[in-house]
Each structure stands twice: as structure tokens, then as C-alpha cells.
Amino acid sequence: MQPTFLGLAGLALTAEERALFQSANPAGYILFKRNIDTPEQVRALTASLTDLAGRALPILIDQEGGRVARLRPPHWPEYPTGEAFDRLYEVAPITAIEAARLNARSLAAMLRDLGITVDCLPLLDVRDPQGHDIIGDRAFGAEPMKVAALGRATLDGLREGGVCGVVKHIPGHGRATADSHLELPIVTASREELERDLEPFRTLHWAPMAMTAHVTYTALDPNRCATLSPIVIDLIRTDIGFTGLLMSDDLGMHALGHPSAGGYPPGSNALEDFGARALASLAAGCDIALHCSGDFAEMRAICEAVPEITEAAQTRLTAAMDLPAADTTPAAQWAEARDELLAFA
């Protein structure tokens, strides 16, 4: 098994994707809007991926709510943003926590019905007034304790529904003043100031999976962004105490191709060499390299470059995917209970 989560190009596996995936045996897959049409089509796609792997499989999706949602009407309902639970928390904290749990239960029911087993949620990024809007209303708020409380409720609700959650973007994207999809954010906050960003991740250090931030924190490692920094990943494992499966954010984001991203061997061309990007993230300490675009040439380069998954990463992956059986309560029933609570905001 290779330490990768890979995307795919369309609504069904192509012959060349099938051959590559059968040979490389990636640890899992991630779905995007381009892979989604109808419920029946998504179920057929996830079943084909599982059948090809011959094992229980992490199939990921970014289904947060609001602007980050791959499943949309008319086949699937809209879900609220993190900010909706933040507003309710200001009025009634316990009610907000329960609403977040019910929201996650509804998400889990919807995803499990489609054969999707991992949701890249919750964000534990602490919102900052100077931060880029790439986080914005996706965040649970600007207060670390609140973010952790709502994040825990979300993890609990997902797991109760048989889906694994992913905390992101560790060690915190809220202060970044740039969008890492487009450029490399540089955060110049002091080590003491960064405690505010680390706190939710430290509180939920037991989360089953986490996703790194493609952000350079000059107080932690001025020469490498977090995903490519052994120093930052050591901090994630020791100071934060995170014990679960650590995946990179998407290798295709422009932040990793920036000349200042660091972490690459001399002579490598990170702008074009996706194998180098994958190897650098794994060498820094990520368990899994995530690649989302479905670009076949990029995936092939990654699969040709990476080694077998380490024993430690395999153990963390197995533990994360040890999920309870999902019940048959419809997603709409959980969503209705959530909406009754959100009405108090």
C-alpha cells in the first residue's frame, strides 16, 4: 500500500486510472464535484473503488457546509457554515454544541449512504480579523475554547454516524493573510502568539486524522512551510501531542510550488515535480500525501516516487478507520433536530 490519498478525473474510473490504482494500491481516495452527479452514480463509484482495493477504504470528501460542499442540491441539501454554530454559541453554548453534533450526524448519514467514510471536517482554525477569507465563515469562531468545543462535537457526531473526521489545518491557518491554494502564506506571529492557534488542536490531540497547513510560520521554521517542515511536524506530534494519522493538504496547491516553501532536495523542480512534493511531505513526517486534482500525469509521478506506507502510518490509518456501524436514521431527521436548535441564534 502506498501512503497516498488520490483524486480521480470524472464520474467513473477510467481504464488507465484503474490500472494505475491497482498497481500502486493507494491508501485511499478523495472525491470532488467533478466526481459527483447523482446518488446512484456516487454509490457505484465508491463501490468500484472499494472493489478495486479489496479492503475497507478511506474515501474522503470536503463536505463542510456553505461554500465548501461537493454534494449540493438538488440531490443533497445545503448545510450551515461553521459561523452558524459560532453565532448560536454566543447565545447558548450547550445548545450550539448539540447543534454541531446533530449537524455532523446528519452529514455522516448522508455520506455513509454514498459509501464515503471520511469527511475533511472540522476546521480548528481560529478566525483572525486580519486573516484571509479563505477561512472566514468556515471557522467556528475567534476563541480557541469555543472552536475546540464545537470541533469536538463535530468529531463526535461524525463518528457516531460511522464517518471519520479530519481536523484541519494543523497547526492553524487562521492568521494566514493569503490563500494557500494560490500562494504561500507567511505568518510572522511570535511563538507566544501562536499558542492561540495551537490550543484547539492541542485540546483535540486525540482526533483520528489531521490535515496540515501549507503555511510558513517564521517563529517555528522560517525556511519551510509546515507541510514540509520536520520541525513543525515534530511540534505537532510532541507539543500539540497529536497521535492520529497526519495527511498533507493538497499537493497541487500553489503554496508548495513557491520557491520559499523549502523542504526539497537540491535540483528538484517543485513547480513541476509532484513526486518531489510527495516525497518532501513524507520525509517531513506526514503519514499520507494528499493529491486532489485527478491529473493523471501528476498521480503517476507521485505513485512512481513514493515508498510503501510505514508501519506506524498503517497502524494510525487502521485505528482511524475503526468506525462503528452506521445506524439507519435518515440524514434529514438529524438535520431537522439541528435546525430547531439553530433557530435560537
UniProtKB/TrEMBL annotation:
SUPFAM superfamilies: (Trans)glycosidases (SSF51445). Its EC number is 3.2.1.52. One of its GO terms (biological process) is peptidoglycan turnover. Residues 13-310 form the Glycoside hydrolase family 3 N-terminal domain. Keywords: Glycosidase, Hydrolase. GO terms for molecular function: beta-N-acetylhexosaminidase activity. It catalyses: Hydrolysis of terminal non-reducing N-acetyl-D-hexosamine residues in N-acetyl-beta-D-hexosaminides. This is beta-N-acetylhexosaminidase.
